[in-house]
Amino acid sequence: MNEQKVTIQEIAEMAGVSKSTVSRYLNRGYISEEKAERIRAVIEKTGYKANFFAKRLKMKESKLVGIVLPRIDSVTVGKLLTGIGRILEPRGYQGLLLSSQLKTEKELACIQSLAQQGVDGIIVDSIGITDRHVKLTENLGLPIVFTGQQHNGVHWLKLDDYAAGRLMGAYLRQMGHEHAVFLGVSERDKAVGRDRKQGFLDAFAEGREGSRPARVDFLETGFDFLSAYSRGPELEREKDGGATVVVCATDNISLGVLRYFHERRIRVPEEISVTGFGGYDVSAVVYPALTTIQFDYDLVGMKTAQLLLNVISGVDEPLGDLPLHLIERESVKRIGSDESLPIESYHALA
């Protein structure tokens, strides 16, 4: 059908909805996902979609940016929002915040809801980018940038979780550790649950095949303090079985482990070492102070916001690297040294 002759009434009839429902969809008002999908299908079939979005580009900006967060009660989320605000606020943008509550379906619904509210773009701190995310992004025709995860089908920016894992693995290898427990999250989280863990495993085991192979045992936990604390009895058994270090996927997980060991009078690092990822401020003041990989979440937020503005304005420019730093404190004991890996090399891996 020729897009010049398609009317809203015809779109409504083909989709089996009212004309007012189509108008709400085009103006990003609320309608059900089922009706929105039917209207989208008709618009794509008729070519009206391109015509509509050409008109939309001529409309005045709303100066609103949608932000989808996995959770609100998180140190990293607070720092991420601070960085986003540093870029958006001076340019007159306001943020609309929604939480996915660590659920994929909720994350998709939040994106849809924000798009219907007429935002100029959306930032998604994602728990995992699926093909459904890619399809939704394409169908909405709205500037959307994902952070925390990556996928070739969308705009994204994230820390290098694999490199962070390698950084920690190389460091602990240099410190003489051979048997580690990696206390991580589900691999449904590809960045933290899979890439960070794999980077650690690759560097920790590197060059140690043969008479002294590295051993890494895996335990799964949630992101929260109490979930990590509840794995304490299993970690205690791992210690008794010869493990010399617990590598926690985040600093928050580390805090739960440290609390359990403190209550059981298990001395860190004398009896077992503990490390984390994140570099939270609290990690420097707990006892013992935590050895961790420090991430600059404020910078991540700033660069993510700048990427969104670039996408909105059609600018393509490099944003620079996101640095990683190993912060060596009191929670790791040297129990030997792998002389085949010079002490400087683990810093170079970032």
Model description:
The protein is an alpha/beta fold and 350 residues long. It folds into 3 domains: 3-56, 434 Repressor (Amino-terminal Domain) (Orthogonal Bundle), CATH 1.10.260; 64-158 and 299-313, Rossmann fold; 161-290 and 329-348, Response regulator (Rossmann fold). Helix content is 44%, strand content 16%. The protein has 14 helices and 11 strands. Strand 3, helix 7 (131-140) and strand 4 form a beta-alpha-beta unit. Helix 1 (8-15) packs across helix 3 (33-46). Residues 50-58 and 342-350 have low confidence and may be disordered.
Structural topology:
Layout: H1 8-15, H2 19-26, H3 33-46, H4 48-56, E1 64-69, H5 75-88, E2 94-99, H6 104-116, E3 121-125, H7 131-140, E4 144-147, E5 155-157, H8 161-174, E6 179-184, H9 190-205, E7 215-220, H10 225-230, H11 232-240, E8 245-248, H12 251-263, E9 273-278, E10 291-295, H13 297-313, E11 324-327, H14 345-348
Parallel strand pairs: 1-2, 1-3, 3-4, 4-5, 6-7, 6-8, 8-9, 9-10
Antiparallel strand pairs: 10-11
Summarize the main sheet.
Answer: 6 strands, mixed
Helical/strand content category: alpha/beta
Please report the first level of CATH classification, the CATH class of the largest domain: Alpha Beta
Count of separate structural domains: 3
- From the N-terminal CA to the C-terminal CA, the straight-line distance is 54 Å
Number of helices: 14
The run of helices and strands is: HHHHEHEHEHEEHEHEHHEHEEHEH
CATH superfamily of the largest domain: Response regulator
From the spread of the alpha carbons, the general shape counts as elongated
Which residues form runs of ≥5 with pLDDT under 50?
50-58, 342-350
Q: What's the average pLDDT?
A: 87
User: Per CATH, which architecture of the largest domain?
Assistant: 3-Layer(aba) Sandwich
> Using DSSP, what is the number of strands?
11
Kindly report the CATH topology of the largest domain. Answer: Rossmann fold
- Please bin the fraction of helical residues: 40-55%
Strand adjacency order, main sheet: 7-6-8-9-10-11
Q: Please identify the oligomeric state.
A: single chain
